Automatic annotation (TrEMBL):
The organism's taxonomic lineage, starting at the top: Bacteria, Bacillati, Bacillota, Bacilli, Bacillales
Source taxon at top rank: Bacteria
Gene Ontology biological-process annotations: Gram-negative-bacterium-type cell wall biogenesis; peptidoglycan metabolic process
Keyword Transmembrane attributed: yes
Protein name (database record): YdcF family protein
Length: 254
């Protein structure tokens, strides 16, 4: 019964409610014999529906997340962590400002690897929007709170996108005499990030983290995979953004 209720809810809340309303509108147009508009509306509705269900979003996400795997052994002289969103003025344990979910997952991976290797941590990310937090400044405070010594932290707090992450990080690494970065970012973001760092003249060891698509979901089947959800549509949008961004990097490289 719980899963039946969840499935019904998916068509009461966005984006499912929009799929339902657009379908009803298209059927009404068919009843009014407006077949051309109805066909167009049904096509748009179908694309909206397909882009909002896990049955589509999870396999799309795995096309990116499967490109790199965490290495068995870290080989580098610095852990480079890329930001992924932050808030400002929000309460935290030892101050204000929090990293977004993906950025926080990347930070946790960096701390764990720092404890294993003793390598310094360079966090790259600035204040992207007027109402967002400065990612590297927040990360510095949180790294210290998690036990990383301040002398082992390098903050690159100016970059606004992945291209600037790579450009400004390359300059900081050179300034600190470092040349073999271990790149830590979300698995879905890693292909574009590697390309941007390569374009900036850096060869990195990729260490993907923050996986979104469960490996088990490739074989599992249940009705919920056909239920529209905000998370699925966000995933599809994120995957498309990464592929378009990768194309842009390739175009800039030619």
């Amino acid at each position: 019964m719980i899963y039946v209720i969840k499935f019904i809810y998916s068509f009461v809340l966005p984006p499912g409610i929009f799929v339902l309303l657009l379908t009803l509108l298209a059927l009404w147009m068919l009843w009014k014999k407006q077949r051309g508009f109805a066909a167009l509306l049904l096509t748009v509705t179908l694309f909206l529906y397909l882009s909002s269900i896990p049955l589509i979003s999870d396999p799309l996400m795995r096309t990116l997340e499967s490109k790199y795997s965490p290495p068995a052994q870290v080989q580098g002289d610095c852990l480079v962590v890329l930001g992924g969103g932050a808030t400002q003025g929000t309460p935290d344990v030892d101050g204000e400002g929090n990293l977004g979910g993906s950025a926080a997952n990347r930070l946790i991976t960096a701390v764990r690897l720092h404890r294993q290797t003793g390598l310094p941590v360079l966090f790259s990310g600035g204040q992207v929007f007027a109402d967002s937090g400065n990612e590297a400044d927040i990360a510095r405070r949180q790294l210290i709170g998690l036990g990383v010594a301040e002398q082992n932290i390098i903050a690159e707090n100016r970059s606004l996108n992945t291209a600037q992450n790579a450009e400004y990080t390359a300059a900081l690494l050179k300034e600190h005499g470092l040349s073999r970065p271990v790149l830590i970012t979300s698995a879905f973001h890693m292909p574009r990030a590697v390309a941007e760092f390569r374009r900036a003249g850096l060869t990195v060891q990729p260490y993907p983290t923050d996986y979104h698509a469960s490996a088990a979901s490739a074989a599992a089947w249940y009705a919920g995979k056909l239920a529209p959800s905000p998370g699925a549509i966000e995933t599809v949008g994120g995957v498309l953004k990464e592929y378009i961004g990768s194309l842009a990097v390739a175009f800039k490289g030619n």
